[in-house]
DNA sequence: TCCATAATCTTGACTGACTCCACAAAAGGC
DNA sequence: GCCTTTTGTGGAGTCAGTCAAGATTATGGA
């Protein structure tokens, strides 16, 4: 039996990532980062807090937000804000992918870039505008929701 | 002197639009719709309420939200939700344009479609996904902000 | 023109997501 | 191991938006 700590390897990995990013290594940060990594992505702050608590025991909501902001600023985590829903977090892969959001269940699914590596990065704007990022969000209905209820909504 | 009502022609126009959309014509609705039309677009509910109040005198925030929802559902107004900012409204032109958002001052500017009429509408998703809309948001720095402060932020 | 009725507006309380603040706790360099 | 600085905690507060109930008002028919 060689389980060093609750959370095991993901925690060690998280610690390494934190250190590499020049962040202080705390139980809370490891736990939250591990939670983001382990989930398939797209969990909100509260869900991540719940998961992290399995390791830390207690974890304030404030701390969760602090950690997530630190991780986001360090480039370890990507924050996806979908209008009308709490912000969700996923591991930063730097692949510039986009998102499909289900209008019914609000599920999020990653979508590969439609065109090349940085799609739609050539808006028709005067040169003075400095474009740094393009976020594409596809709105629609996911297979699960289509199956459950053919199509009642018209929006 | 033939000024029929405070607000004048825009109000009459708004009334006509409301009637055409099958909505009841109320002072509040005319005032809000006129406010959306007169502004260059991209005002939030509170700003629109302020403008509408010049005509209606009093107007509750709740009524403003009700009216904006009715107008949006009727297809007269388009609601643009930028993560981290209150929802903003503009007249629906059905031209499928997108938005540029300044990271510093949060100003919004319309952007013509990058490719054809419905850009990026071909995400690499299984056929079971029903895509209804694609929203493209460009994040960057507007000319005003670049001029005022060369470039201090790195985000 | 008046009236009945259903849609709309007002007021006030409430929710959810997130932030601010001050103090306590802990990480990491010496 | 000590000390400085960064982090985390708990509680109050903010902001955008919603819910609910009763008062008003637009609209179609008599």
Automatic annotation (TrEMBL), chains A, B:
Species: Streptomyces capoamus
Phylogenetic placement of the source organism: Bacteria, Bacillati, Actinomycetota, Actinomycetes, Kitasatosporales
KW Amino-acid biosynthesis (keyword) present: no
Entry-linked InterPro entries: FUR, Fur_C, WH-like_DNA-bd_sf, WH_DNA-bd_sf
Domain of life: Bacteria
Cofactor info, note text: Binds 1 zinc ion per subunit.
Location(s), subcellular: Cytoplasm
Name of the protein this chain belongs to: Transcriptional repressor
Cofactor section: Zn(2+)
Binding site for Zn(2+): 102, 105, 142, 145
Cross-referenced Pfam families: FUR
Primary localisation category: cytoplasm
GO BP terms, alphabetized: negative regulation of DNA-templated transcription; regulation of secondary metabolite biosynthetic process
GO cellular component, one term: cytoplasm
Recorded GO MF terms: DNA-binding transcription factor activity; transcription cis-regulatory region binding; zinc ion binding
Keyword annotations from UniProtKB, A to Z: Cytoplasm, DNA-binding, Iron, Metal-binding, Repressor, Transcription, Transcription regulation, Zinc
Protein family membership: Belongs to the Fur family.
